């Protein structure tokens, strides 16, 4: 850390030296003028439709997208519920509970609390209290979660397994396995029936205590007397635990159990099987499950292909990866950049730069473009082989960023700083500084790379320049 602090202290001041001169000579392209007086938010546009034909809603949403605006499921659902409320449509307890959850995701916890507190007592029920408890548990607000749980106990609203599952999940996230086990015992004393989610959390927490003996005893009890709660997710968790503990044979046994009780119309168990078999290096089983998946469903989705590509990459099988890629392209599914990124990443690890660049160019031609993971792959590669190309990638990625959606990885910045320090390359120093400043992360980088007293010195240097 001390070495890095000195490096930043030496490099950053003269990185700044020519920046102002460069910025003064830059000709900025004027932004296209937008008539803001005509612009309306999505909610107002949908509200104005009234009793318009069904197609009008679709046209309105498509128009919103054509303007470059974003639509998220949670925001859309919240707008829909706002619209329903304005038209005095009746909400039941379940609808209020859903709305509390949506408000928390779109506007935050405080807004969800305010909405809950505004509800009449008649709908402040197990569902709405439970929705607020779930939110507190998701964001790890322990004090508020326990406070509302105690209130629910006073009102006799804790008779559902879901209420306790939320608390189990909270303390699991907080890394308190003993508390999870204690709450499970409390559930049993209340004669509540644990479900598969309950047991999955419990198994994971016993495993975090390195108590695999208890995990195995618990699994034996479930197989003997509680088969109704056993589903494939429990065996998937068990396989992952055995894998982490270094027991490949037990991992395979758990995977066989997973396959036996899988839901044959659900793709997820197949995905877990492929991924876990790849993790133990069993290519034959990966291929077998892949064939089984494709024969079980009429269509093989991009997500299934993505899982298979990740497995083949993990297994370091480039030939099989190429063959699978040709199969995917011939399937004529939507051109998914996530899949392309897996292949590009594998090529670059292997030093197959020409193949990776060709694939990137092909993706652009097919309209898939790139995401910032693509840039990360190439920047990482070029930093080791061609610093000028790495810098071009960084500049291109920076120009594409909107709304702080991407920042370079800390190790990427560290590598650039190391190069600049060693070579005293002024042009590269100024270009890197300009990118970091545009990405609004220059001070964040400094804070991570330096100790507090060094940061203060660098902040003063920024101000002087």
Automatic annotation (TrEMBL):
Keywords: Repeat
One MF annotation (Gene Ontology) recorded for this entry: mRNA binding
GO cellular component: mitochondrion
InterPro entries membership: PPR_rpt (IPR002885), TPR-like_helical_dom_sf (IPR011990)
Start-end of each PPR repeat: 125-159, 160-194
Similarity section: Belongs to the PPR family. P subfamily.
Protein name, per record: Pentatricopeptide repeat-containing protein At4g01990, mitochondrial-like isoform X2
